[in-house]
What does this fold into?
Amino acid sequence: MKIKFYLPAAALILGLLSSCSDHVYGPALHKSDIAYMPKPMSMDSVKSATYVSAGLVLDFGNNLTDQLTSGQLNISEAHTFKNFNLAYGAFTSLGSYANYDLQQGDAHYFKDKFFGAVGGRLSGNFYINNDGRTDIRIIGFEAAYSHEFGDYAKFRKDVTGDPNFYTDTRTELFTGGLTSEIVFHGRKPNTQMGFRIFVGETFGNDNIYNNNKNDYVTYKTPTYVAFSYFIQLKQYFAVVEGGTYVQFRVGLKF
It folds into this structure.
């Protein structure tokens, strides 16, 4: 009986979504521009390091059915001082926006569009260490600036003002927020692991994501929340990060 109830309900929800005539397009990195920046621990013998990583980012468009896939290259410099650390770096991202919302015959139909971005990031934490093995980074901050380019950015400008198209045409984003993190040595001295939560927002005009006068459904929310898991083995490290997106990176520490 439950199965008989769930199937019609699912069909009804899908029908409502597919019947929406509004199409929403925002910046390619909206709510996915923050990335975890590793830093040496307070008990490490070397308190400054360079981190280089490459990663894959998977995200959904505001139309829910659309998908963004990109590769990302990051380089950052980090320094750990007494009870405070700081990291700064640059990144570039290249990817594709795949359309599954517009159908052939619809106005402005496309299969996929290229996007790219370059930018910089800044991160810092106040921390305490009581057991010689764990850095509790009680409170910190993250900031990211990005400049987008490519066919997808041009598309958003071209369709602005057309009926049923809602666009955020910004090609420059600035995101900032607060973090809390814990990083600790594993059983082996050369192994480190950490967990971090970020809460912040992308500054600027986000009105299209809060517009109740249209019939689109969007998962982008005003508050930006992301979770990260970090692991380092000798000079190798990996990061898994997610919020409304998923990011996986691997890299080297120098």
Helices lie at 2-18, 151-159. The longest strand covers residues 112-128.
